[in-house]
Amino acid sequence: MVTARQLAQLCGVSVATVSRVFNRPATVSAATREHVERVARELDYSPNESARALSRQRSAMVGLVWDTDHRRPSWRHPFLQDLLLGLKSALSSHGYHLLMLATSDDGRSRTPGASLADPVAYVNMTRRHQLAGLVLIDSGTDADAFSVFAHSGLPCVALDVALSGPRATYVTSDNAAGAAEAVRHLAALGHRRIATITGPRGNAPATARTEGYLRGLAEADLPVRDDLMVTGDFYRESGFVRMRRLLARKEPPTAVFAASDEMAVGALLAARAAGLRVPGDVAVVGFDDIEVASLVDPALTTVAQDKRGFGTAAAGALLTMLDGDETPPPVRLPTKLVIRDSCGSRR
Amino acid sequence: MVTARQLAQLCGVSVATVSRVFNRPATVSAATREHVERVARELDYSPNESARALSRQRSAMVGLVWDTDHRRPSWRHPFLQDLLLGLKSALSSHGYHLLMLATSDDGRSRTPGASLADPVAYVNMTRRHQLAGLVLIDSGTDADAFSVFAHSGLPCVALDVALSGPRATYVTSDNAAGAAEAVRHLAALGHRRIATITGPRGNAPATARTEGYLRGLAEADLPVRDDLMVTGDFYRESGFVRMRRLLARKEPPTAVFAASDEMAVGALLAARAAGLRVPGDVAVVGFDDIEVASLVDPALTTVAQDKRGFGTAAAGALLTMLDGDETPPPVRLPTKLVIRDSCGSRR
DNA sequence: CTGAAAGCGCTTACAG
DNA sequence: CTGAAAGCGCTTACAG
C-alpha cells in the first residue's frame, strides 16, 4: 500500500503538497496538481482514512443507530432495505460511509422499559470512532432516548421521530395528509361509518395519522365517533383483534382505515374470519405500501410512503450539516394513495 | 474527550502501561491494572479507534459489501433485516462494527453486465479503512466478482455464494436438503406430477434447490419430466408466467415446488387466474419463509431458512478468522419445512 | 505556491 | 512489570 510520503517522493514534492492536492486542490498550482494526480492514479494511491480521521479529529463515517428490542423479535422496520439503499448511495457520493453501531449489549438482556440498549454506549462509540454524524432510526418505542444524541452536539438526523437540538433534524412522511386523503377517498366512495385502527400511543407517525383521519372526517362532513376508533400497535395481530372488535359493534363500520399495512392485513383476515367480503361488506385501507400490500387478496389500497426518498432526504439533511453550518428544517415527505382492490373503488 | 496520555498522568503511569491495560491486561500487575481501570471508568475513557487502527494497521471494522444493481430497483434480499441484526450483534460482542461499503458509483450507471458497481473500488475502500474483514452479500447476479475479494487476502465470508480463497469461506442454507424434503412431502400427499419453478441459472442456491428437487423425486420413485421443469428468476412475475406455462401443459402438474416464496406467490396468483383452487386443484410449496408467506391466501407451505442464523454464522466464521489463523469450513444451515395451507396436507 | 515541523492518540518492540 | 521512544499516515498552521 502506497503512502502519501512515497507518492510525494516519486513526484518530487512534499507530503504537504500531496495532501493539498487531495484536500484543497485550488491551493496548488495546476502543473504540480495534475502531475501528482496522475502519478497517484498510476500507483492507485488513496489516503489512509484512519490517519486522516486522527489528524482531522473527525472521520468520514456516519453512525447508524438502529436498535431493535430483542425481546420483541418480530419487530421490523417497514422498509429498512430501501432506506439503507437510499442512505448509502447518497452518503457515498459525498465520500461518507455508514457505520452500523451496535453496543455489546446487543441481543442481551436489557432493563425493562429501556427503549435503547444503552444510549450512553452509543454516544461513546460516536466519540471513539470520531463519527461525523448520526442517523437514528426509530426503534418503534420510546423516542426520548434519542434526545441524548440530539444534545451530543454532533449532526443528527432522525427518521420518523421529531428530534430537536442545535444540530438535529428529522425526516418523516406527511402522515396526516396521507391519512386524510385515504379517509376522503373512502368518504367519496359513499362510506359514512369509517373506522380507524391507530398505531401505538406516543408514536409520532401514529399520532399524525390519527390526526389526519380526524381531519379527513371533518373535510367530508362526517362525525367523529368514539366507537369507531380503536388503538393498535402497528402489528398484524393487533389489526386482527381490533378489527374483530369493530365488527362486533352495534353499528359496525363500512370502511376501516388502518394506520399500517400490517394491521390492515390483520383486518382483512378478521373480516374474512367473520364471513365478510372485502370490499363488498367492508372496505379496508392501509398505510405504508409494503411489499405484502399488493400480494394479499384483495390487494390492499394503501397510503404509500416514499421509501427510497427517506434515505435520500436523510442523507441530504445530514450532508448539509456536515458540509455547512446550518441546520435544515424537518423534511416532510409527500405520500401517495395507491388504489388497489380492498377499498372497492375499482370497477 | 480524555486521552490515554491524560489518563496515564492521572494514574502516575506511562501511556504504554495504559495501553497494555486495555490490550494485554495479563502483562500488567494486578494493582496498577485495577487502578487504571477504575480511573478510566471514572473519566469515561475509551481509546480512540482511529489512532488504534493507524498504529495497529487494522481497524475494528468489518466491511459489508451489499451491492444492488440499481437498474433493477425491485431487487431485494429476502431477509436482509434479520441478517444484519444477527451480524451486528454477534460482531459487536467481539468489539467489531459493520461498515456499509458503497462506491461513489452507487446509484449511478454502471457497465452493462457488471455484477458489482466496481469490485476494485470496494477493495480500495477496504485498504483505506484498514478493514479487518469483509462480509459479502450475494447481489443475486454474477458471483464471480466476489473472487476479487477472496483473493485480496483479508478474511472474507460470503452469504449464499461459494467463495474460496486462503481466508475465505461462506454460509448458506442446506438448499438441496430443504428442497428434497418439500418434494418428498408433496409425494407423500399422493402427488405424482410435481413440477418445479427454479431460480436463475448460475445462482448457487437455485442450483442446489433444483438438485434437491431431483433428489426428492428420486427418493419418491418419481420420474423426472422435462416438461415439469421451468426456469424462473426468483421474482414474483416469473413465478406467475412460468406457472401459467406449466398449467397449459398437456398433463399439467398437480403440485409445484417454487424455488422462492416470491415465485410461489406468483404461482398462486396464476393458479387463481386460471380458475384453479389451491391446494384443491394444484398444490404449491415455496422456499424462504419470508413474511408474505403466512399472509397470502392460502397461507404458503414453504421451506424456511434460518434467517437470524445466517448473520450469526457469518459473524462466527469471520470472528474465528479475525482472532485466529484457521479458515473455517463452509457452513450449511439446516432448513425447516413449514406446513401451512397451500400444499393441502392440513385437514 | 510550497516545504519543514508539529501534532492527532494510540501500539509495540526494546531496554531495563 | 514498566517506561522512553519510534512510528502508524495523514493534516495544518506557520514561514518563506
From TrEMBL, chains A, B:
Superkingdom: Bacteria
A single GO molecular-function term is: DNA-binding transcription factor activity
Q: Name one Pfam family in it.
A: Peripla_BP_3
Which keywords accompany this UniProt record? DNA-binding, Transcription, Transcription regulation
What SUPFAM superfamilies does the annotation carry? lambda repressor-like DNA-binding domains, Periplasmic binding protein-like I
Q: Where is the HTH lacI-type domain?
A: 2-56
**What start and end residues bound the annotated signal peptide?**
none
- Listed PROSITE patterns: HTH_LACI_2
Mind telling me which PANTHER family this protein's record contains? ALANINE RACEMASE (PTHR30146:SF155), LACI-RELATED TRANSCRIPTIONAL REPRESSOR (PTHR30146)
The entry's protein name is LacI family transcriptional regulator
Q: What is the lineage of its organism?
A: Bacteria, Bacillati, Actinomycetota, Actinomycetes, Pseudonocardiales
